[in-house]
Write a structure and sequence with these properties.
Elements (H helix, E strand, L loop, with lengths): L1 H18 L6 H20 L3 H12 L2 H12 L6 H31 L4 H33 L6
Helix pairs in contact: 1-2, 2-6, 3-5, 4-5, 5-6
Length: 154
C-alpha cells in the first residue's frame, strides 16, 4: 500500500510537471490519468495490490534505458552507436515487458472479480502500451534503415 501511495503521489506530480511542457502530449497525459485513477481505485477498494505492484515493475523496467536515451541526446551522442544500443535495449525491454507481461497481467486483472474501474484502467494501460509499442517499433525501424542507407560522397 505504501509503494502504491508513493507511486500515486509521483504520478500526480509528474502529470502536473508534464502540463508545464511546451507541448502537452496527449498519450502521456492519458497514461498518467489512467495510472492515477487505477492506483487510486486500487487503494480505495483495497484490491489488486500485487497486480498493481507487478504492473509497476512491468511498466517501469524499461525506464532506465528510456532515460539513458534522453541523457545521451542531451550530451550530444544522438546519432552514435551508443545511442543506437540504448534505443534497441529500450525497445527490447519495453517489448518483452509491456507486450509480453502486460497482456498477461491485464488478462489476470480482467478475469478476476475486480471492480469495473480497475478493469477499465488495466485495459486502458495496456492500450497505451500497445500504442507506444507501435511508435517505438517505428522508431527502431527508422533508425536501423537510416543507418543502412549509403551516403553519397561528393
Amino acid at each position: 500500500m505504501e509503494t502504491l501511495a508513493m507511486t500515486l503521489s509521483y504520478m500526480i506530480y509528474d502529470l502536473v510537471c508534464c502540463l508545464f511542457d511546451k507541448r502537452v502530449k496527449l498519450d502521456n497525459a492519458i497514461h498518467h490519468l489512467v495510472s492515477i485513477v487505477g492506483i487510486g481505485a486500487g487503494l480505495a477498494y483495497k484490491k489488486c495490490g500485487s497486480e498493481m505492484v507487478a504492473a509497476l515493475w512491468i511498466t517501469e523496467i524499461s525506464s532506465p534505458f528510456l532515460h539513458t536515451r534522453e541523457l545521451l541526446k542531451e550530451f550530444g551522442y544522438k546519432d552514435t552507436d551508443l545511442n543506437l544500443a540504448a534505443d534497441i535495449l529500450f525497445a527490447v525491454t519495453f517489448t518483452f515487458a509491456r507486450m509480453g507481461g502486460g497482456p498477461y497481467l491485464a488478462y489476470v486483472t480482467l478475469a478476476a472479480s475486480n471492480p469495473f474501474v480497475i478493469k477499465v484502467m488495466a485495459l486502458g494501460l495496456q492500450l497505451v502500451s500497445a500504442f507506444w509499442f507501435y511508435k517505438i517499433a517505428a522508431m527502431v525501424k527508422y533508425k536501423l534503415t537510416k543507418r543502412t542507407v549509403p551516403k553519397n560522397v561528393a
